[in-house]
Each structure stands twice: as C-alpha cells, then as structure tokens.
C-alpha cells in the first residue's frame, strides 16, 4: 500500500517499515494515541527494536495523524 504523506512519514518508514509492511499498520483498527504509544514501546521492550525516543514520538505522531482516533 501507499504510505500517505504527512509529517513524520520518513521516520515511520525508517523505524517501522524496517520490520513491518505498512499493510500491517494500516490494517489495524483505528485506536487512540495511547494504544499506538504502547505498541511502539512493545516493539522496543519485547522485540528489541532500536528506536530513539524522539523518533518513536514522531512515528507515533504520524501513525495517529493518518490512522488514529484523535
């Protein structure tokens, strides 16, 4: 799928699409920011994703802006 334009898109593509297809993200139900933040933290804590805190926040901002409930 096409990854929509938006602030933080490049960071999302760099940190999330390293392991995931964008389809995995965009096929999820629309959820609020706290759920996306928890998911990003799970990727770090459980799966060992290496994501700087600043990049995590920007990736979450991007996902919420295109696929969140806020």
Search tags:
globular, 4 helices, 70 residues, mainly alpha, single chain
Please provide a written account of the structure.
The chain is mainly alpha-helical and 70 residues long. The protein is 57% helix and 0% strand. The chain contains four helices and no strands. Helix 1 packs across helix 4 and helix 3 packs across helix 4. The longest helix has 15 residues. The radius of gyration is 11 Å and the shape is globular. The N and C termini lie far apart (22 Å). The relative contact order is 0.24.
Q: What's this entry about, in short?
A:
The chain has 70 residues and is mainly alpha-helical. The protein has four helices and no strands.
Q: How are the elements arranged and paired?
A:
Blueprint: H1 9-15, H2 22-26, H3 33-45, H4 53-67
Helix pairs in contact: 1-4, 3-4
- Cα distance spanning the termini: 22 Å
The helix content is: 55-70%
Compute the number of helices: 4
What is the averaged pLDDT score?
A: 93
Q: What string gives the helices and strands in order?
A: HHHH
Number of strands: 0
Radius of gyration: 11 Å
Global geometry: globular
What kind of sheet is the major sheet?
Answer: none
Strand content: under 5%
Q: Which structural class is indicated by helix and strand composition? A: mainly alpha
Low-confidence stretches: none
């Amino acid at each position: 799928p096409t990854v929509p334009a938006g602030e933080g898109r490049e960071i999302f593509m760099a940190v999330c699409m390293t392991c995931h297809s964008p389809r995995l993200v965009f096929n999820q139900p629309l959820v609020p920011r706290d759920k996306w933040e928890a998911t990003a933290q799970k990727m770090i804590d459980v799966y060992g994703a290496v994501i700087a805190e600043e990049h995590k926040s920007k990736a979450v901002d991007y996902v919420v802006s295109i696929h969140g409930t806020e």
